Amino acid sequence: QLHRRGFRCLDGVDGSAGMLERARSTGLYQELRLCVLGREPLPAPAEHYDAVTVVGALGEGQVPSTALPELLRVTKPGGFLCLTTRSNPSNLRYKAELEAALGQLEQRGAWQKLLAQEVEYWERATSEEESAQGTGYISGVVYIYQKCPVPNLEEG
Q1: What is the DSSP letter of 42?
Q2: Which of 101, 42, 123, 108 is nearest to 75 (CA)?
Q3: Alpha helices in the chain (DSSP H)
Q4: What was the pLDDT predicted at 155?
Q5: Structural domains of the chain sorted by starting position, each given as residue range(s) with its CATH number in brackets
């Protein structure tokens, strides 16, 4: 979808070599690198990207919420971060931790929340317990933040 909307310079990281090979087969990415987000720094210089997205990886047992400052590090001032997480019962504890970390960064002036939108049919449920009211789907949330510009330091 991003490519169809004019985004042409796309890089990707994943902790799985197999997923990187799948991404490589699409021909959409300029760079693909192996990186376990939350355990090691992203393979990019500071303030490198206009936008950073994390879709399908912010969840229990996956990318920890402690990785948020690293996402901010590689985003240009004024750039955007689009993050997602699931709202299914087994992810509610992680979602609460994530939202607390998101809020702390906003309170510190690192970024500004532009959107937090619930999506009812986020992805297919893998069990009846995870299904939202028996729909066969779980819900999720899309968060969009804008990194705050670095304040100008006045002399004197």
Answers
A1: -
A2: 42
A3: 17-26, 68-73, 92-107
A4: 45
A5: 1-34 (no CATH), 44-147 (3.40.50.150)
Q: Consecutive sets of 10 residues in the chain, 156 residues long: mean pLDDT of each? A: 84 96 95 95 96 94 96 96 94 97 96 96 86 85 93 50
Other Cβ atoms within 10 Å of 48 Cβ, number: 14
Give me the phi and psi of 5, to 5 degrees please: -95, 15
Write the burial class of residue 83 (CB in 10 Å: 0-12 exposed, 13-18 middle, 19+ buried).
buried
The whole-angstrom distance between residue 87's C-alpha and the CA centroid of its chain comes to: 15
Gap between the Cα atoms of 106 and 101, Å rounded: 9
The pLDDT assigned to 150 comes to 66
Between the two ends of the chain, the Cα-to-Cα distance in Å is: 49
pLDDT at site 60: 93
Rounded to two decimals, what is the model's pTM? 0.89
Predicted confidence at residue 151, as pLDDT, reads 59
Contacts of 37 by beta carbon, 8 Å cutoff, 6+ apart: 13, 15, 54, 57, 63, 67, 70
User: Which residues pair with residue 123 across a beta bridge?
Assistant: 138
The whole-angstrom separation of Cα 86 and Cα 63 is: 13
